[in-house]
Amino acid sequence: MLDVQGVTRMFGQKAAVDNVSFRVEGPAFVGIIGRSGAGKSTFLRLMNRLIDATEGEIRVEGRNVLALKGAEARAWQSQCAMIFQQFNLVPRMDVASNVLHGILNRRSTLQTMFNLWPRADILKALEILDRLGIAEQAPKRAEALSGGQQQRVAIARALMQDPKIILADEPIASLDPMNAQVVMDTLKRINVEDGRMVIANLHTLDTARRYCDRVIGMRDGRIVFDGTPDQLSTGVAREIYGADDSFNEAATSTSIPTDTAADRSYADLMLS
Fold first, then answer.
1. pLDDT tens digit string along 7-39?
2. Domain boundaries 28-49+70-271, corresponding CATH code
3. Residue 48, by phi and psi: left (phi above 0), alpha (psi -120 to 50) or beta?
4. If you placed Cys at 102, which of 18, 109, 144, 160 could pair as Cys (CB 3.0 to 4.6 Å)?
């Protein structure tokens, strides 16, 4: 489904992403780990076409998405939804409208200006919010919500696009442990229940081990590890993170509680 071959992005003389290649078949949950500056965020932005690659190919179902131009590139961005660390919501706009903005590129300029949405789209947005456990927040301004709730609104906006792939760039880096668990549980359920590929940049090793089917480690723009979570040994982690202090921080910054409700997630409890 996804075939990345020799992808490189240069900024001047420095390679932020350096000859990255990997292949993913099926709707896996892929975690990308590494210290700050490893190239994780740059790679996701290349994949979503927010920036252009210097060279290489990213093929999805045989089509090189890096070669798409104009309307085709914009259509790809709808199929490859992006979730950001800082949510990127419109703070003074209500939650439902923020979700509906996931399909702005399918609406006319006039409809957008006057915030006019077909009833079917409004119902779909409310259904997604209900699925994520925040339907009661629909009429509230986004700025009135907690960080975890705002990130779930951002996930709902991504789902509104009906994407093939969801890219999450440090989705829990600014959240407290409980909200981090809610967000990661939500992404995992979308991966399993919807059969959508999720690729997430993550800070902590415990999060990658708990949620990912596959982990890719990056250092200085290159892939230095590609394997399953149970292959993330101490030696491998040190190779990814480099210095001992960086490794220790990554290994001990536990963002997700592991002993809640007999290992049933908060999202499971809310949606059961």
1. 999 999 999 999 999 999 989 999 999 999 999
2. 3.40.50.300
3. alpha
4. 160
